[in-house]
Every structure is written in structure tokens, then in C-alpha cells.
Amino acid sequence: MTDITDQDRRAAMAWAKNWQGDQDGDTSAAARVILATVDAPEPTLAEEILDAAARIRDAVNPGDRDVSWADMESCANRAEQMEQDAEDRQEWNRRITEQVATLARERDEARAEVERERDLGVALAHERDEVRAEVERLTAEQHTERPDDNDWLAGMKEATRYAINATHPNPADVPAGEPWLVRVGGHEALAVRDGDPFWPWSVAHLDGGIDDVADESVTLTARLVPAPRVITNPDELEQLATRAVILSADDKNPDVYQRDSYDEWLDITAQGYSSSQVIRMERSVTVIYQPEEDQK
What we know:
Keywords: Coiled coil
Number of strands: 11
Distance between the termini: 101 Å
Shape: rod-shaped
Coiled coil: 93-120
Radius of gyration: 56 Å
Strand order of the largest sheet: 6-11-7-8-9-10
């Protein structure tokens, strides 16, 4: 329900006083009802001044008055203006109070939203840490060495040494019995390190000459390896010994497998496959390393 202000009461009573003697019965009746039911508001200072001036005007002769009617009316107008200014200030204060309350409510809502976002960020960070921990755990499990396969990585390194025609920086590092293409005295030659303490290299020159030379006389060019063995039959692949290494036939993205002690072929992710699965996936593989006991 809307509150009725003093200004509303004054306006209603002024209308009722103006129309209470009207010939229209309904209008006159409405005016009388208003006068009978609406409580008159407290008089304003201007109304009190004008009321006092009217009583003085009616009771005192004009020659005996100390203050003229015009002065009283001017004073009443000034009082009315002051009261209006006070009402305006009160209304302004009311609006400012409402605006402050609205801003405070919006501030509280924004603060609550910030707190919700912060809690969400904390929850997401916690979830991220849990996911990261799970990834680290799974990664650690994936790279955990199997029992009896502690030398798997060492075997892969050894296989790489045999599989690649590597260039040794020092001829003295070459194992005895290993054949190499070398340069001796500026000429190409075939040589085998035989382990002699003074002349460890037996050299066969391409022009037919044979010689024994020291390590410092040899420049290694490439290690000579036997022709690769290609396997397309899973039964033949099954006969290779533990730690044997094979290479798939894919020229662009070849896969490397090594045989473990569980008779599985492990790829670089340590995923194990049977010989039949390897041949079915790769169709053919090349043996790039065989231990000394190359048969099971």
C-alpha cells in the first residue's frame, strides 16, 4: 500500500473545501467524506504564519498593526520555501540512501561471486594436482622395469652398438676380432684388430698388400657387419634368444623390439607382444642384434 504524504492530505483537503458546496451531489458528497475522514496534517510554518496574519488582519485595525499583511505574506512565502527546501533535501537523502543500499547490495553480490570463482579455482587447482599426480604415478608404473629384466635398457644400448655402423673416435676402443673399413697411409683397407700388443691391427690393402700397424696409424671409416637377417615367419622369430633385437620394415617410422625373459617382444614403450603378433603387425622384421647364444 502506498503511503499518503502530508502533501497528499493537503491537496485532498483543499479540493474538498473547494467542492463541498458544489451543486453536484456526488462531488459534494465526496468532498464531505474527505473532510470527515482525512486527518489534517500538521500545519506548516508558512500556514501558521498566514493563519496568525489572518487573525491579526481580522481583529486589529489597519492603523494599529505593527506589521503589514504584505510583510506577513512575504515571511510566510519564505518559510514555505525553506520547508520545501527541507523536503527536497529529505527526498535527496532518501534517494542517496537507496542508491547506497543498492550499491552495497551489488557489492555483496559481486563479493559472493568472487568468492565462488575463487572456490572454483581452488577446486580446479586441486583437481589438476590430482590429475598430475595420477599421470606421474602411471608414468612411473609404465617405466618400472619388470622382474628379471633389469638389464633391458642396457641390452638395447648394446644392440644399438652392434646395429649401427658407428665411427669410433679411438681405434684402441675396438674389440678384438671386429672387422673394419679403415684408412692407412691415406688408402682404403680392410682391417681386423687382433690384439697384438705392438701391432694390434692386421690390414689387408685393397691393392693386395698385407700389413700389421699400430692404433695411431689407423683411421676408422665404418664397421663391417654381416648382411641383415629378415624374418617373416613367427616360428623362426620365436627361435631368437632373449635380448635379441629386431627392426620393423617400415622405412619412415620403423619400430624396434627386444626379446625379454618372458618370451615377449617389447617395443620402446615396454609394451609386450608375442612373435605371432609382431609378424602380424609388421609382416617382416630384420634382426639387428643377436646375443652370442642366438638360439633358444
